[in-house]
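Quick one: structure tokens for this chain, please?
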Amino acid sequence: MKPFVALLKRMRSRFPLVERTMGALLVLTGIAFLTGWITTMSYWLLETFPVLATLG
């Protein structure tokens, strides 16, 4: 537990940057869902890497 707490103390100054980055990714993901880009990307991934169809 102590190494994790030490990591958090070192990363504390970077939290605002991490939060803004994650917020931007969340917005971009929402836009991708609304525009249908997620579906297009999923078909591309399955055509390019057919082994992914066997997962799950």
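Residues 33 and 39 are 8 Å apart (CA to CA).
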